[in-house]
Amino acid sequence: MDQIELVHSGKAQMDAPLRDVPVSDLDPYSTEVLSNPYPHYAELRRLGPVVWMSRYGVYALPCFAEVKDVLADHATFCSSAGAGLSNFHTEKPWRHPSILLEVDPPEHDRTRQQMVRVLNPASVRALRPQFEAVAEEMVRRFVDLGECDAVPELAAAYPTKVFGDAVGLRPDGRENLMPYGDMVFNGFGPVNDRFRTSLANAAAVPGWISDACKREYLTEGGLGRNLYAGVDKGEITEEEAALLVRSLLSAGLDTTVFTLGNAIVIFARHPRQWAKLRDDPSLVRNAVEEVLRYDGTFHSFYRTTTRPVEIAGVSMEKTQKLLVLTASANRDAKQWPDADAFDITRKTNGQLGFGFGIHACVGQMLARLELEIILTKLAAVAGSLELTDEPEQHFNNTVRGYRRIPIRVTAR
Ligand code: OVM
Description:
Elements: E1 23-24, H1 31-35, H2 38-47, E2 51-53, E3 58-61, H3 64-72, E4 77-78, H4 107-118, H5 121-125, H6 128-145, E5 147-149, H7 150-155, H8 157-167, H9 177-186, H10 193-200, H11 205-212, H12 223-227, H13 229-232, H14 238-251, H15 254-269, H16 271-279, H17 284-294, E6 301-305, E7 309-311, E8 314-316, E9 321-324, H18 326-329, H19 364-381, E10 382-387, E11 392-394, E12 401-404, E13 406-411
Parallel strand pairs: 1-2, 3-9
Antiparallel strand pairs: 2-3, 4-6, 5-13, 6-9, 7-8, 10-13, 11-12
The structure holds 3-methoxybenzoic acid.
Residues 98, 100-101, 184, 246-247, 250-251 line the site of 3-methoxybenzoic acid (OVM).
């Protein structure tokens, strides 16, 4: 399905902006920045709501209000030029563009509707008993281990099992899913060594994904197979159904695996908040939102201007890429009192971890269900969570997470 060829230059619009705009030469994709982006985001917000990023020729939006405004106006700030740095209107995408994420209305509404049909509140609710049964067993085993790496034992194992089963994937080959997500999420950034390596290390992965998206591969009754019902009703083509399954596989696994790992690390580092959750499990839903606000998994993506426009007094041309820093917006003190504090009792309404507007995460109910179930079980079964060593980050151009979380867990 995907012929991989990298032509992105990122140099299309490197000229300095015409107006008096704050400029930053920060590389948001450097290992140093990715290690701890928050002080850098704070500096961007201090510079202003619109900052020219001289290395990439894009405007960064680090503040809540402007991020939300831009995401609300999909006609002016489009997705069809790609949700990454590369401009699909002038550069060849590394894979067939997503027919959900990388399109505008009216095309978008048609495909979104198909996704909503399989990921509606009732179909997600129906998954709960199975998700809870798996969580029960996995969390007990995790706590019984006492000391382990929480990534393979829980954070990666749980979504791989329950999401993979929900989609209707066969048990074998699921190890291809994380490396594929790694390519996809690196692909929203520049063509740097990190992206090239993720492609080179996993040459067989896109082929496996492409096969796994086909109707005959997918189990009857799963979310993937259910997307093919749209073909039978004449609403989408067989190829479109396969690409929508690909969207599930692209966006659905790495994100939840990393969020689960991030939640474990954050709670291990905030024992009083963990104690609060154990004392009052009704806080779990808000705790999930606060995890996503405080250290969101999806850090940034792009929009592209469809006409000359002004944002916060900064004029820009048509076809300008904008770096939408949702994880920075979620730490904006103008929106969030004591923004850098992790507090599961705060008001989290409006956090942007799932985006905002017509492209807001279509799987967010499914993601919340996974997170809520695991944290609830963990809070019921585990006592203290204690990191036995520094967790090791998994570096990716767009998503934040850990590849190793050495932890000691006591039974409650
Ligand atoms: C897609 C896709 C891939 C990654 C992320 C995403 C956040 C969508 O292929 O549709 O949404």
